[in-house]
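Running this now, will post back.
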Amino acid sequence: MKTATYKLNSKSILRLIRTNLIILFLLYVLNYFFFKVYNPTVILITIGQFFILFNGPAIYLLINYYKNNKNTEFSIDKNSNTISIVENGITKEYSLNEVKHSIYNLGKYWRNAIDKNYRIPTIFSDFGYWDLTFENGDRYYLTTLLQDFLLEEDKVKNTKYRFRLIPYIDRSETEQGIELKPIEYKPKSRTEKLKESYKGKQTRN
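Update: finished.
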């Protein structure tokens, strides 16, 4: 299998710009047909508030991720079962069997895959990072500025997941994450429903 290489790219920024343009176009359509606000000051204030509210967390994540990955790239060779990481000009190679902890950090929206709560995606839902720790203590934070690998098949077996509203890089994080296994939904039987109904009547009495 060909070696997969991941390096800094502009896909996250371009996606963010595209999303903003779509939202601004929709706002323009709504204003043209419904709101009919033509005061330039009001329009500029509204656009400014929209930009701060919706893009503030995304811009913070872009800066946070760039600081950590501006001189980073990595490649995975499935044939040799190794990962090579370049950071600040220094290259290190590890066996994937040497991984101690592999944790994907994603936004809360992706927790829907587990609990089926139907959370609404945010403008920064696709941001996240891979918290990768090796047996020798080396630890890396590989973000989506390198590639959208977080939504692909896990690079390492037994990878776990953390979910936060804003998935910024937290170097003090010690929580090991959870397995990505959907909660099995079991419909209640008629007997269980009758028991709950009976208990409810007893409580009211």
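Residues 69 and 203 are 58 Å apart (CA to CA). More later if anyone needs it.
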